[in-house]
Amino acid sequence: MTQTQEIRDAASVILLRHRQESPEILMGKRGGNAVFMPNKYVFPGGSLEPCDFEFPFNSNHQIWNYEKLSIQSDRELGKPLVNCALRELEEETGIRIKGNDLQNYNMGFILRAITPPGMTRRFDTRFFLCRINEKIESSQMNYFGNASGELSELHWFDLEEALDLDLAAITRNVILFVSGIFDQSMELKRLPFYREGTFEELTFI
Question: What count of other Cβ atoms lies within 10 Å of the Cβ of residue 80?
Fold first, then answer.
């Protein structure tokens, strides 16, 4: 009897900053010995950990509609997934965004993807777009000295440059999606949901 492969909940952050020539996104390269996506360029992110359920979260801001994160999912995962995204961003890049700063970064849930069967590991990843404007950008966004080292070659790439990197198929699709929405409101009515090798839509009323 074939054992069902575990699918772990995960979160990933797409940091985007505006430049006159083209918007840029922050990506890093996974190590050659990594079990999952070795040598691929990825966004900061990782799987949900127990601490993400315990970490204090500022719930006073109004930007989040946690119902979006709970559609076809556990309703209790909303805030832990946001905590996971922010924790992984800080661990892998050294960049820290506090919960009460989310509105300044116009952070929003934009896409969900489940790793197809047959991969060494499988994740149910929620992708969050975090847009940095000139008012809040600082030297912190270019300093990666506090990063864990899990990602090497951390760099800001314009959207066209990023598509020329060694990417997994889903990462490429995320970049293409971001290219079409980066200047839109985060109040999206429909989000792409990738599973079983195809895209469908999550619709919000």
Answer: 23
| Beta pairing partners, 200 | 193
93 contacts: CB under 8 Å, gap ≥ 6: 15, 26, 28, 44, 144, 147, 151, 154
**Cα–Cα distance measured from residue 146 to residue 155, given in angstroms and rounded to the nearest whole number:** 14
Q: Which domain holds residue 106?
A: 7-203
Residues 6+ apart with CB under 8 A from 24: 16, 17, 18, 156, 157, 158, 159
Structure tokens of 199? Answer: 């895209």
Please state the pTM of the whole predicted model: 0.87
CB 11 within 8 A of CB 129: no
In a domain, 194, yes or no: yes
pLDDT digits (tens, 9 = 90+) for 88-105: 999 999 988 876 667 667
In a domain, 1, yes or no: no
186, pLDDT greater than 70: no
3-state class (DSSP) for residue 76: helix
